[in-house]
Amino acid sequence: MQQLDGRKMTFAPVRIRDRSGPRLLVRVVRNVRAASDVMLEWPGRGSAWRTAAEVISEALYGRETPEAARAAFLAAAEEAGVLMVDVD
Asked: Which residue(s) pair with 18 in the sheet?
């Protein structure tokens, strides 16, 4: 099966902390491809990361929805301590 264009598989934005440089940056992830790319940079790879990697991969091949990929990505971001929660 051919991989789909994950950039077109959008979902509600997820804000995460990017600790890759000397300054704290905020990244906004809006699609399945970006979620996949961001997760490859994370140093910690716990059980939520492994689940998210699988679900995101399935979404890239059309076997899961972008919403399922987002939910798994949220859990992995929370596990990694990078999820930013909006405070109103």
From this structure: 25
Neighbours of 15 (CB within 10 A): 14
d(CA 26, CA 11): 18
Predicted TM-score (pTM) of this structure: 0.87
16 bridge partner residues: 27, 83
Closest CA to 16 of 27, 24, 31: 27
pLDDT tens-digit readout, 10-50 = 999 999 988 666 777 899 999 999 999 999 988 778 999 99
CA-based end-to-end distance of the chain: 43
